[in-house]
Design a protein that fits this description.
The complex is a heterotrimer of chains A (about 500), B (about 150) and C (about 425). With about 500 residues, chain A is of the alpha+beta class. Chain A folds into 3 domains: about 90 residues, Ubiquitin-like (UB roll), CATH 3.10.20.740; about 90 residues, Alpha-Beta Plaits (2-Layer Sandwich), CATH 3.30.70.20; about 220 residues, Rossmann fold, CATH 3.40.50.740. Chain A is about 25% helix and about 20% strand. In chain A, helix 7 crosses helix 11, helix 8 packs parallel to helix 11 and helix 8 packs across helix 12. Chain B has 2 domains: about 60 residues, Arc Repressor Mutant, subunit A (Orthogonal Bundle), CATH 1.10.10; about 80 residues, Glutaredoxin, CATH 3.40.30.10. Chain B has 7 helices and 4 strands; from the N terminus they run ααααβααβββα. Chain C has about 425 residues and is α/β, with parallel strands linked by helices. In chain C, strand 5 and strand 6 form a beta hairpin. At the B-C interface, helix 2, helix 4, helix 5 and helix 6 of B face strand 3, strand 5, strand 8 and helix 13 of C.
Chain lengths: ~500, ~150, ~425
Amino acid sequence: MPRITVDDQQYEVAEGRTVLQALDDVGVLMNGVDIPHYCWHPKLSIDGSCRLCQVEIEGMPKLQIACNTPVKDGMVVRTQSDKVATARKSVMELLLINHPLDCPICDQAGECKLQDYAFDYGVEHARTDMPRRPAKKATELGPTIVFDQERCILCRRCVRFCREVPGTGELGVFDRGDSSLLELFPGSKLDNAYSMNVADICPVGALTTKDFRFKIRVWFLEDQPSVCNQCSTGCNVSAARANNKVYRYVARRNDAVNDTWICDHGRMSYREFAENRLTRARVGGADAAYDHAVNAAGEALRQVRERGGRVVGVATPFASNEDLWVLRKLLAQLGAEPARFAVPRGPADDILIRDEKCPNAAGARRLGFTESSEPVGRADLAIVLGHTTSCVALAGVENVISIDAHGSELTERAQIVLPARTHAEYEGSFTNWKGRAQRFVPLVEPTFEALPMGAALAQIAAAAGLEGWSEPYDPRRVSSELAGQVEAFAKASLAELGDQGVELPS
Amino acid sequence: MKPETRRKIEELYPLYPHKRGALLPAIYLVQEEHGYVSPEAARELAELFALKPVEVWEVLSFYNMFYTEPQGRHHVYVCTNLPCSLRGARTMLKGIEKHLGIHSGETTSDGRVTLGHEECLGSCGTAPMMRVDGRYCENLDLEKALRIVDELE
Amino acid sequence: MLTEPFVKKYLTEHYGDDAFHTLAGYERAGGFEGLKAAFTRKPDEVIDVVKQSGLRGRGGAGFGTGLKWSFMPKTSDRVKVLVCNGDESEPGSFKDRIIMERGPFQILEGLLIAAWATGAGKSYIYVRGEYKLPIERLRKAVAEMYVRGYLGRGVMGKKGFDHDIVVHSGAGAYICGEETGLLESLEGKKGQPRKKPPFPAQSGAFGLPTTVNNIETFAHVPYILARGVPWFRGFGTEKSPGTTIFGVSGHVERPGLFELPLGTPLSEIIQHAGGVRRGHSIKAVIPGGMSMPVLPPSQLDVKMAEEFLSERGTHLGTGGVMVMDDTTCLVRAMCVIGYFFRDESCGQCTQCREGTGWVHKICERIEAGRGRASDMDLLASIPGMMEGQTICAFADAAAWPLQAMLKHFRGEFEDHIVRGGCSFPESFEL
C-alpha cells in the first residue's frame, strides 16, 4: 500500500488511485485536506479541464492536477503553498470572466461551489466589466431541469453523467474556445429517469430543478439524513426541512447503495409527506378523537379474543423494521398466524430502480411474515398497516382496523381508521434488497394527531387489555429488542446504524 | 442520405481499428450531397456509427469546415491571419464584401457565394490569398479576387 | 500549387522536377535508397542511426526524433501505429505543404523507415482539411505504392514486413496539430487534447502504441539513412543538425520558402527573401510561427536554431518568419494574434478558454481607442495565469506572443491608450 504525504500528514492509500481518489477514499478530501475542484466527481470519469485541483508535487516542476495524478509511494503533495494559491486565484478569476452576476436570482446561491471557492480561493476584486458571452437563459432542458446556459462553467460533469450513468447521453458541448456552450442535440430533451441528478452535480446554477425553483433560499434549510421509500434500493437522501416542511430530497452518498445518485421518481417522493394525508381518526365512518378510535379498536380486539375469533395481521412493506416487530409481537401474543404482506411491483432497470416498489419487503421477510396477495378469507378482525393489501383480499374480514398515513380505498372502507406517521415524522429503519438496514430520522412534526405504526399498535394492545404494553412507545427500545431477539436483525439497532446503514447477516 | 453515400461510408470502416475513425470522412461525404449536414442527416450518421446524435453534432460544431446550415453554391474564404493581413488581406476582404453587397459570414441573396474569413491557410508566401471551394487562389489583389469571384456560377 | 523554394538544399533539391511527385520520377531521382539502406540494418540499429543523427522534430517542439522512436514498445500484441502530422496550421508556416505537394514520396519513405525501425504496422497521415492538393498528391502516391508492392503485405518483397498507410483529412481546427488533439480527431471526435498520462507510446491512436512526427521530420529520414550521419551532421549546428525549410512572409520583397541549414542567421534568411519592403525598415520579426515570441530589430543576428533562439527568449517553432515593417501597428497585430488564439482554443481548460478571450477583448478595446491605464498591468498579468497549467501547450503558445509584445513594445501599447488611437496611419487595416 503506497504511503503519500499531503501537507506534512502521511496517508496510507490504495494502489492505482489518483491523489484526489486516494484522499476521497480515506475520507479527508474537503474534510481536512482542501483541494477545491469542479470537473472531478468521485463517481464519474476523470475530466481534467477545470484546472482548479492543481497541487504541488515534490520533484515535479509544474503544478499537477490532483484528479489525474496517480499516487506513488513516497509522493509528497502540498496543497496550500503560494504557487497553488496563485493558481487557484487565476482559475477563479478566469471562470468569472464570462459568468453572469446572477447570485441574487440564482437558486444555487448558498450552495454554489463558484461562490464558495471564489470566497475561499479567489480574487477580491473583479478586473473586468466586459459583457459576458451571450447564451440561453432560464430555458427548459426537459421536463425536470431548468437550464441557464450563461452560468455554465463547462466542467462537463453533466455530459459525463448522462453518458455514463443512465447511458442516455443527451448533453454535449458544442463549438470551441470561449464560444463553447453546453447544449442538447437540436430538438431533443433531457429526459431520462435520472435527469435531476445533473442539478445535484452541477457546481453552479446552470442546471437546477423545476421542482425547487425559487421555493426557498438554501440557507433557511436544514439537511437531515434519510432514505427514499419508493423501492427496495433505499437510496440515501438528504432531506431539507424548514418551516416544519420538507422542501426537497437531494441524493446522499452511500457507496454501498446508490453512490451519489437517486432516480427522479424517488427524489420527488418527498411530496408524499404533504399529499393526501389522513388527518382525523375515524370510527364507523365518522371522524373521531384519536383516543376514542384507539379505545374502540382495543375493545374490538378484546371482544374477538374473548370469543376465540380469528385475528389477522396485515403488514405493509412501507412500515419500518420496528413497526413490523411490534406487529409480530402482538400477533404472537394473540396466538394469531404470522402477518401477511403484499409487495407492489413495477418496472426496474439495472441502475438503481428495483421492481419491488417499497422500502422494507426484506424486513417483513426477515420477520417471517407471509408474502401473499391472496384473499385473507373469513376473519373476525384484521389489523391492517398501510394499503398495499387490497380491499378485495380483505373482503372476508368483518372488522378492519386501518393504520395508515395516506387515504385510500381501504381507509374508506375500514371500520376504524388511525392516522399514521410517514417516515418523515418518526425514527426507524428499513431493510433494503441487499439486507442493509438503513435509518431514517424525524424531519417534521405533523400538525394533526398521528402515531408511528408501531406506537398505534402498542396503544391498541394496551387498550385491549393485553399484558406488557404499558410503557410509553420508544423506537430505540423497540429496535434494541429487535436486534437482540431476532438473529436476522443483529446489529441493526437504531443506535448502531449511523448514516450509512449496516449490512445484516444473510 | 443517399444509399450511394451510405455505401461509400461503409467502405471506410476497415481503414480504422474503430469504426468511429471514419466519422470525419463520412461527414465530408454527407456534405457533398447538400453542402451541409442537417439534424436528420446527423441522426443517420449517429445511427451508422452507434453514437448519440449529440456526439455527432459536437463534432460538426467543432470544425470550421463542417456546416450545419445551408451554404451558398460556392465558398469564398479569405485568409485574414497575420502574414496575409500584413499584405492587405483585410482591405481586400472589405472590397469583396462591398462588391457582393454582403458581410463576411453571409451568403449572397441568390445563393451563389458564401463569403467568409479563415485563419492561416498555409499560403503565407503567396499572400493575400483565398480559398475558393476546394482550391487556393494565391498572389491576389482586389482586382484579381473580384474576377475570380465573378466567374463563379 | 505552391511555388518551389527559392533556395534549395537536399530536401527540396528536386522540387522543380514536375515528375518528382510520381513514383517513377521519385525513383529516377534516387528515391528509396534510404529505405533500402534501412533494410540492411536491424530495427534497433535504425533507431540508433536516427538518434545519432540528432534529427529534431520539425513540427515546432524540436524533440529528438530517434529518442521519440525509442519510446515505442519493443514488443506489442497490438498493432503499433505511426501518425504523420500534416495539420500545418501555425500562421506563417507553409513548408509541410510543399513537401506534400512536390515530395510526397519523401514522407512515405520516411514513414516506412520508421515502420521498419519501430515495428509499426500502420500509418495515418493526418492532413489539414484545407490542403486539398496535398491530400490528392499523397493519396495518389500511396496508391502508386500499393500497386508497386511498396505497401501492403511484404513491403518491397520483405516477408513479414507489412505496412498500410491511410491519408486522413482534418476539417479545420488548429488544435488538431497538437499531438493528442490530432489523435482525438483521427478517432472521429472533437480535437480536444488529452491529459497525459497516458502517453501516446503507451496508448495513442485508438488506444494503440503510437508515435507522432511532423511531415518534414519524416521527409529528412531517408536522406539520413541513405547518405549517413556524418553527411547529415555536416548541415546545421551541433545541437540542431540538418536543414529546414524556412518560410518568410509579411513585409519582404520576395516572400516564400527557403531551405537552409539550421543555424543560419535570421538576417540572412530575410535577405534571401529580398529583405524588408523597399523604402521601409524592419520593426519586428516573429521567428518561428505566430506562437513564438517576437524579436525586435536588434535581435536579427540570432542564429535560427532552437539553442540560440531560446537564449534570446524565443523559439524556432516551425521556422515561419514573419516580418513587420515600420508601418505596422503592433497593437493591431496583437489583435490579429489574439483573435487567432481565441478562435482556435479547444475550450477545455479554464485558463486557456477564458484567458484567450480576455486577452483578445482587451487588445480590441485598446485598438479601438478605449484603452485604460490599468489595461497594461492587466494584460501583463494574464500570460502568467495561463502558462504551464493546462492540458496542452496551446495556452503557452497563446501567452508567449503577448508576453513578448509587452516586453519589447510596451511603449506602443501605452501610446495607443494615451492617444486613444493609432500612431501608424499606414498600418495594415484591421
